[in-house]
Design a protein that fits this description.
The structure is a single chain. The chain is built from 2 helices and 3 strands; from the N terminus they run αβαββ. The chain has 95 residues and is an alpha+beta fold. It has a domain of 58 residues. The longest helix is centred in the middle third of the chain and has 13 residues. The chain starts with 22 loop residues before the first helix and ends with a strand.
Length: 95
Amino acid sequence: MFTLSTQGDQSPTVSPAIAPTTATETAPPSAPPTAPVTYTEPVRLMLFGSLSAVQTTIKQIHLHGYAEPNDWSQPISTGRPNEVMAILTKRVSVG
């Protein structure tokens, strides 16, 4: 592909017989696109309220497509009258 230079600076470095003729031939092949690097981190959502309020909120969150109702914990009593909590731990993409 390359010729040895024996005549100093006047000799070509690429043989004219195999020199590229178009711009597309001179461009190196492009690298495949790389996906952006993303990381996941856990987040925790906690709902506090009456049993019916917590269940209704879980259903509303599900309607928005954020989490399945079965992904939440069972209602846990907080020790306060008529109050429970439910916890959702979910991994979200960051970056």
